[in-house]
Write a structure and sequence with these properties.
Number of strands: 0
Strand content: under 5%
Radius of gyration: 14 Å
Order of helices and strands: HH
Distance between the termini: 11 Å
Largest sheet: none
Number of helices: 2
Length: 60
């Protein structure tokens, strides 16, 4: 039961972080170009967060 609550809370936090990073990535992409260094770095962060979310989800 305790693990489920932890995973549920972590999942919600990851989703919030993913959405914020995704919105930032789009904003930076529109301002600097979608192949700019900053856009790519943020894109990689989004990918890492999505991987973490997938890992948490697959262990439930």
């Amino acid at each position: 039961m305790q693990r489920y609550r932890y995973n549920s809370t972590l999942r919600k936090a990851l989703i919030v972080d993913i959405e914020a990073a995704r919105e930032l990535m789009i904003k930076v992409g529109l301002e600097e170009g979608f192949t700019s260094r900053d856009t790519i770095i943020i894109s990689q962060l989004v990918g890492q967060l999505l991987n973490e979310l997938e890992e948490i989800t697959s262990t439930d």
